[in-house]
Amino acid sequence: MSIQDLTSFLERWNKSTTEIGGLANNRRLYQEALEIDLVKSARSNTLRLNALKSRKRRKGNGTKFMKWLIKQADRGDFMVTACVQPWGHSFEQSSLSKDALRDWFIKYGFKVVWEYPDGKGYEMIRYPNVQDNEKNAA
After folding, report:
1. H-type helices in the chain, by residue range?
2. What is the pTM of this model?
3. Strand ranges (DSSP E) for 31-128?
4. Which of 17, 56, 74, 86 could potentially form a cystine with 28 if both were Cys, beta carbons 3.0 to 4.6 Å apart?
């Protein structure tokens, strides 16, 4: 996927979601269930997932979004980087720990790049799956 295609993808993303949080915030509401900050990375051909917060926990919305996102990334042949850490005003008991979040992202093909120096989370990356691209083309 070229930078132009990635820009086009993000334009479609912005049209299909609702802006929340104002100009300085890239957070968008996805299917009334998730608050997501998804932007074009400074890295070439890369999306940046800065935040993924469920408004309706334990309903499978995060899983549905992640399956959709990786399918788009594989089709478009672009990478996804992610800031993986628990967040919110308070860490409710239903929040996943940083290690549970890391494991959840790994399940979708992400790899740990490093643990943050403050020990509160991870920088992760997912490369496009070329084999899936070939299967989808067949």
Report:
1. 3-16, 61-76, 98-107, 130-137
2. 0.78
3. 34-40, 46-54, 79-84, 111-115, 122-126
4. 17
Q: Which residue has the tokens 């132009």?
A: 4
84-90 contact pairs (CB < 8 A, 24+): 84/110, 84/121, 84/122, 84/123, 84/124, 85/116, 85/120, 85/121, 85/122, 86/120, 86/121, 87/51, 87/53, 88/53
- Gap between the Cα atoms of 1 and 103, Å rounded: 28
pLDDT tens column, 84-131: 988 654 444 447 888 999 999 999 999 999 999 998 899 999 999 855
Q: In this structure, what CATH number is given to the domain that contains residue 80?
A: 3.40.630.30
Contact status, residue 96 vs residue 58, Cβ threshold 8 Å: no
Q: What residues pair up with 37 in beta bridges, in sequence order? A: 27, 51
CA distance 134 to 132: 5
The pLDDT score that the predictor gives to residue 137 is 42
The domain total for the chain is: 1
Which amino acid belongs to residue 76? G
Burial of 124 (0-12, 13-18, 19+ CB in 10 A): buried
